[in-house]
Amino acid sequence: MASLELKGIRKSFGATPVLGNVDLTLDAREFVAFLGPSGSGKSTLLRIIAGLETADAGEVWLEGRRIDPLPPGDRGVAMVFQHYALYPHMSVRENMAFGLRNARVPKDEIERRINDAARVLEIEPLLNRKPAEMSGGQRQRVAIGRALVKEPKLFLLDEPLSNLDAALRLRTRVELAQLKQRVEAAVIMVTHDQAEAMTLADRIVVMNDCKIQQVGPPMEIYTRPANAFVAQFVGSPAMTLAHAQMVGTGEYATLKLGDGTEIATRVGRDQLPQWANLRVGLRPEMVRVGGRGKGTAKAKAELVERLGERTLVYARLRDGQPITAEDEGDSRVKIGDEVSLKIDGAAAHVFDADGTGYHGAVA
Amino acid sequence: MTSQRDWRGLLFVAPFLLLYSVILIFPLLRGLWLSLNQVDLFGHGHFVGAGNYAQLFQDPVFGTSLVNTFEVTLMIVPVLTVIALALALALNRASRSAAVFRGIFFSSAVLSVTIVTLIWRFMLAPDAGFLGYVAKAFGTEPLPFLSDQSLVLPALAITTIWWSVGFPMLLFLAGLQQIPADMYEAAALDNAGRWTTFWRITRPSLGRTLVLVVMLQTAAQLQLFGQSQLLTAGGPSGASRTAVLFLFETAFGRWELGYASAAAEVLFLLILAVTLTQYWATGRATAAGDGR
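ok -> structure tokens follow
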């Protein structure tokens, strides 16, 4: 049974459109990440589901019940806010009990749920503290606990990790992943951090420009990006996109870059529009430093990033096209070096003039 | 070396210390000294010790003025606070009309007391006043606000509330805007109704502002003077004479400066005591309430 269903959601603020006709269905107990840059409408969509914002058109259904005409408290959703939004004058226990008391949950039931949540989140020693007396990480747990005790049908997490420092963010990410196994509800997380989305979500909803660009499991988003935006937004460092022309004949398309390098892709020639202005997409791991022969290009290294286990080389082809390549961790490439790049054409992506992506059979 | 450095440091604060001594410390001590003397504007007077104080505590006029002062303060402060809070809650939104109304409700605060009392004299006069017309329109006798001993303090209170509501309203508005919007969103998701949201979210967040407003207004209204002098000159038969009006009449009507100074010292100590009590009580209440 579907958990959440969005049907034709539209929203604009004054003359500025924010969401144009969004449709989405979540499976039961699914963890979905809304991923997109600032202003892509992902937070607005979350707030429409929560009832904090009203859609101009469209319907929101949760487990077979239409919820968009209901006030936020009656929708069966719980939200973890970006800045936690804990009530500063209430203790942790009162913060967690507040919503349950308003919903007239019996006292011993409230007590039981708070104790359960406190045990799971390891915040038992904090129950009588005020938010001001806790660290950011502790507040984050309390905010999650406050959502947990409501036993909602849907959890909404608004950039839940963005206020934590790097070490804590990694730890909390692991904890969120464990939490996901425990709860019976579906979860939506808004984030602009693709690593969070990739590691936590069952499916990622990539948003940009008031629209859903692609919905799919993390690896599908990564390996078969629907369009040039998704291709560049997901993956770090970003995929290289280079203008190219189709040459030769054969079952698969061969594309020639501006500097003359030919890339034999595994994208069917018949799939591609014939006259289109094509671009070839290359992830850094498909472009290796070193090698000779067909499918190698000469480039000049402009920046070398040593990450330990691998080295990233930001280079420029002879025609000035920037390209990102990968090398071993102990790479000897220096800035200004002439390098040859071995391009794995079989894994290359092709994008047409509209940005629509085409992928090889094996990729 | 050390003493030299101390002196140089003192130089930096000297201008402030000088001004502070001349315009604050000196008058304070001078007033205290005056209160221990029998003195008028022309003579040098002579030392009477606690004589002025002894006389004060037996003076029924002073006693009545103190009672009047506390009565009118008790009438004004709670009502003023509630109205200011209600206005702030109603006008705490970004619409144009709210901005206009904020301006209107604050505008009375910029008027001088002379104009305020003039306006309210027209409002309150039983035969020709606005409230008189209203009463007649409803077929009842107009109330003689300014000539009835039991109505004159409420009349003073109404005038003062109308005049002073703007500033506390502004303080409450500032307090309301400090409350993050996501707190209210969290409350909406927590199923909190309007009243619960006000009582459990807004009110505790405004606690400090509330204390500030009550303390400032109490200290200000215990010194109520202009309205009483201009509206009724303390009448009828002293029913609206406040402590500061008593002071003024004693010092600049009867020229008994020593006696007036003694009354001023008593009032000063009373205001100090009331303010400290409030501070102590709210400090305990917040300590018990939020543990910070």
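The longest helix of chain A spans residues 166-182.
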